[in-house]
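re: that chain from earlier
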Amino acid sequence: MFDDLNITLTVLLFLWCFGLGAIEIEIEGGYGWAERLPTWYLKRGKTGMVYGWFMGHRPLTGYHVYAFTIPLVILHLPFGMGVDWSLPAELATIAKYFLLAVIWDYCWFVLNPAYTVRRFKRGNVWWFEVPWIWRFPLDYYFGVLLSIGLVALASWDAGSGEILREHLWLIAGLFVLTGLTVLFAPLYHRWYRHMRRAGADDRGITPKYGPPAPDEVWSGGVPDLPPLEGGESVDEQSAVDR
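^ sequence. v structure.
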């Protein structure tokens, strides 16, 4: 029964999700969707509107351009390391990405002391203003079902149900590991607070100096950067986007 369950792959992919969720907590703190990061937000214009239509009206941010594409590139690394590319293999890879995106996103909420499982519900997450079913936003169900659909296409194209069986076992394994993470998340919360206790931060005794041109980047607050010399003004660029 367990022939299709690749335990090593399942654990490694879960650790990949856990790590991505944890590093985003270190970057964003309790304010998700890059709310307080020095990145750009885009909801207007054709790009912003199309992205918002597919993403539950969430804004596109510079942070997420890289946060979403780099993991997808990493999942394609086997094709550059000797694994033969094929349409079924590509569909299975993209399917894994949509599945892992759900697990990684949920890990952010489970591990984040600002949310935790108890506070993860509709009305507490402004970027999930979509219908919720039971305790999860519709996006999660869509991501998992899309991954299954893509693998079903891969299995049909390959003429074998093995790919689909392996993917279903992967889903089951990831769900089990996610459940264990929920159980042990309080230990992570304790460690998170311990590392930020009063007097624990060594920033003050670390020799450092600022960037050579701090005024050339936006570091928070109201964006107020002049256009590059010879470039378009902000108003002109906005007109192009629209």
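The first strand starts at residue 41 and ends at 42.
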